[in-house]
Amino acid sequence: MSENHHVSFSVRRVLAIATNTLIDLTRQRVFYFVLIFALSLIGSSVFMARFSFQQEFQILKDVALGAMSIFTSLLAIIATARLIPQDVEDRTVYTILAKPVPRFEYVLGRLAGVLLLLAISTLIMSAMFLVVLFGREQAVLHETARQMSSLPHEQLEDALRAVRSSALNIDILPGIGLIFVKACLLASLTLFVSTFATTNIFTIVVMVVIYFVGHLQATAREYWLQQSNLGWIKRAFLALVALLFPDLQAFNLVDDIVAGAAIPLTLFLNVAGLGVFYIAIYTLLAAVVFYGKEL
């Protein structure tokens, strides 16, 4: 189909497409199903354990952050997989590109709409998680103060301080930030796959495979590299897999957060920067493939 190749880039057009994409996605039942299920799991995590307060907070964080990671990834894949195939099927893409809208703006606008959806979902789940964590912290503080009221003031303050340090800490925020970055990465990769896929089912199946490979490749690579007889062909294969599939496990800092370990700023910036790099690359590849796609 014809397209104006001389139209300058317009942020306003991209934002218009992104807003329209966000509105369309929020009308889908799958968005509310995934969000409600995730919120239910996060909310119910407070009832899953009754151990010492340290163990209880660890389990609560593990369940809640794990739920956020899984459901934001799932939402990123499902929401993005249907965009281009659905637009082609409904002929919406023809209406958009018939106007002075370059294909790159169309791709960027669609992706931006998904990223906005992921940001809203992440904020809602984070708010739910922090409310649950804060509420449980206050309950434990009250119970600890009641049980230890007969102890000297210094010992009571030490006990209450230990409860606070086990519950809320600043390292939760970068962990949530990387969960969001990983979801954005999966959205951009899903968009790239959907540009040459014929159906959204095919895109989802491919992304599920990529999701598991991305989480397992670091463990497999470490195991294979320890083998003394590893030839150059296998090493080249490992390098190719590492190049094609992002190491999704690198974005998982849940274990460190649950253990109470501090997340260095350099580690956060390096991982976040890697995620932004992948997002930019996959978005560019999606635009290139879509530019040459026959519509």
Count of DSSP H/I helices: 12
**Globular, elongated, flat, extended or rod-shaped: what is the shape?**
globular
Q: Structural class, from secondary structure content?
A: mainly alpha
Largest sheet: none
Order of helices and strands: HHHHHHHHHHHH
Summarize model confidence as the mean pLDDT. Answer: 79
Task: Report the oligomer.
Answer: single chain
| Uncertain stretches of 5 or more adjacent residues | none
Estimate the helix proportion, in percent: over 70%
Cα-to-Cα separation, first versus last residue: 6 Å
**Rg from C-alpha positions?**
23 Å
DSSP summary, beta strand count:
0
Question: Strand percentage, roughly?
Answer: under 5%
Summarize the structure.
The chain is mostly helical. The chain has helices spanning 11-26, 29-44, 53-81, 83-90, 92-98, 103-147, 153-167, 172-196, 200-225, 232-244, 254-259, 265-291.
Architecture overview:
- This protein is mostly helical.
- It is built from 12 helices and no strands.
- The protein has helices spanning 11-26, 29-44, 53-81, 83-90, 92-98, 103-147, 153-167, 172-196, 200-225, 232-244, 254-259, 265-291.
- Helix 3 runs parallel beside helix 8 (172-196) and helix 6 (103-147) packs antiparallel against helix 8.
- The chain starts with 10 loop residues before the first helix and ends with a helix.
- The relative contact order is 0.13.
- The mean pLDDT is 79.
